[in-house]
Amino acid sequence: MTSTQLLVSQKDSRLRWTLIILSILGLVDSIYLAWIKLANATAACAGIGDCEAVNNSPYAEIAGIPIAVLGAGAYVAMIFFLWAEPRGKFWKEYSALIVFGFSLVGVLYSAYLTYVEVAILHAICPYCVISAVLLVAILIISVVRLLREEDIES
């Protein structure tokens, strides 16, 4: 392995670990929102936004499944693919693209939900905003990783 390849590998490893940390933060956020929804509890919003209006709206579920549960599942999947990446040829080849796909879908759906919060519900859930910001960061880092892979291959 040349020194340039080693440097690129180290940078990619740091980006992968950054993605794992961001995904874990997103998972914690989603689990908290899912617990609030499923336990019918009150969110600790500290006067910032209106978590209750958002979490109790009809937009907080798809087919009876809380959006936060689906989000937690997506974060778990991303953590798995990032963890598996150095553990086999298939994972090394496709994990970055799969994480990009999950984050792209997550960002697009979060954009829709943010529109719903602002335009329809007239209420903002700060925990939903945190998840949206984390997903945007994951998407950006995923794009950087994919572009680096293209540069290495060409």
Return the CATH architecture: Up-down Bundle
**CATH hierarchy class name:** Mainly Alpha
**Mean pLDDT across all residues, rounded?**
91
Placed side by side, the strands forming the largest sheet appear as: 1-2
- Per DSSP E runs of 2 or more residues, the count of β-strands stands at 2
Largest sheet: 2 strands, antiparallel
- Share of β-strand residues: under 5%
The percent range for helix content is: over 70%
User: At the fourth CATH level, what is the homologous superfamily?
Assistant: VKOR domain
Helix count, per DSSP? 5
Radius of gyration: 17 Å
Kindly give the count of domains: 1
Contiguous low-pLDDT stretches (5 residues minimum) are none
Short description:
Helices cover 79% and strands 3% of the residues. It has 154 residues and is mainly α.
What does the model show?
With 154 residues, this protein is mainly alpha-helical. It has a single domain, classed as Up-down Bundle (de novo design (two linked rop proteins)), CATH 1.20.1440. Helix content is 79%, strand content 3%. The protein contains 5 helices and 2 strands. It has a two-stranded antiparallel sheet. The longest helix is centred in the first third of the chain and has 37 residues, at 3-39. It starts with a helix and ends with a helix.
